[in-house]
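Exercise 3.2. Students should predict the tertiary structure of the chain below and write it as structure tokens, then compare their answer with the key that follows.

Predict this chain's 3D structure.
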Amino acid sequence: MQYVPAVQESILSYEGGAKAQFLDRRLSINGALFYMDYTNKQLRSKRIDPTFGIIDVIVNIPKSHIQGAEVEINALPARGLSLGLAATYIDSKIDQYSGVNAGGLVANFAGSAIPFTPSQQYGGNARYEYPVAQSISAFISAQLTYRSKTMPSSAGQRTTILTPTGCSMRSSASSLGVGGRRCFWAKILQQILLDQRRRRPRHH
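Answer key:
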């Protein structure tokens, strides 16, 4: 139930970075710093309704920001072998907001982290491709991702509950040859469809 509609949020984003290549382009390093200044960011919070009591609503956070850094490293250490590493650090803060907490009390939440914003994210991937016959090659690949704990509580709820640390690994193997490009793209399409199904909300 939402009586007062939330207004459109706006963001002013700054970003700067650098790219470098070494060892005859077999090693590349990319880095960036970013700052995002939000006005009226939309978040889920609480409101006291005279009839229903404490209810969930979408509110506007007057001022908040996200700042951080990211780095990406890609290497080709041997023929057919490619490695990649990526890391992101995020510092998110609510700069100005007074709202209702889960207990029905008005509180000032300036300085709190923005919900569902992990402070650390890491990723790594490896792929090795090798010939097995004329015009035919095979590959094996693996991907590992990690995400730090986040605050799942909405703005206006000061809790100590944390979401579990996220870590996942994906591996695949296939062969490429005549018609191999079609097979390769079909594999990508299949993975995209699987990801969409996992993210699609279930209705009971």
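Discussion points: Residues 126 and 182 are 22 Å apart (CA to CA). The radius of gyration is 23 Å.
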